[in-house]
Amino acid sequence: DAGVIQSPRHEVTEMGQEVTLRCKPISGHNSLFWYRQTMMRGLELLIYFNNNVPIDDSGMPEDRFSAKMPNASFSTLKIQPSEPRDSAVYFCASNFGTGNYGYTFGSGTRLTVV
Amino acid sequence: QKEVEQDPGPLSVPEGAIVSLNCTYSNSAFQYFMWYRQYSRKGPELLMYTYSSGNKEDGRFTAQVDKSSKYISLFIRDSQPSDSATYLCAMSPNTGNQFYFGTGTSLTVIP
Fold first, then answer.
1. What is the band of B72 on the pLDDT scale with cuts at 50, 70, 90?
2. Residue of A41, A97, A108 lying closest to B97 (CB–CB)
3. B90: which residues sit within 8 A by CB, 6+ positions away?
4. Which residue in A93, A112, B7, B39 is a FRET match for B90, CA 20 to 30 A apart?
């Protein structure tokens, strides 16, 4: 298995532009999580899906952020419009939804908004 | 107060030393405890997984959970330069699927 696959690895964009981050979870995993990591705040859960349905989006910082999971093998996190304070590493993770198994993380997308 | 507290370090030790990494937490409902290792510019990877109180050993790594004190530890014996990374604790209550992470402790093992 190739693991959790995220793209792009790096993204540099100008303030105000739309940014779309992509994630392919491990085949067979039915829960998917989007995290944001910064030096100051560590890993913060933004949203998670179970069987493609959003379960908890209370971590999404504001309406500029949206996430979708149209099928079991693909999810997107969109920021529109982007702001410099959105600069961070965004991780996608997946696991089996039943039981408290650990996550498998992707390699992350490093976002810089200038 | 954050749900999970972790000293960010940095922690620097000589090769061969015993390393102790710790987290405290406030939510007595946490039942599942994990340690992740994160190398620079990589995603976190699961290192140890424990349920409830007690110890778990895996090679040079030992995880301890003391639920009465709301305190968990990770010990690394005979530390190696390849252990240099950030270590994050994570925990979850007995229901649901969300894990709460510490901010991570940066460890450097000097050859």
1. very high
2. A97
3. A102, B4, B33, B34, B35, B36, B99, B100, B101, B102
4. A112
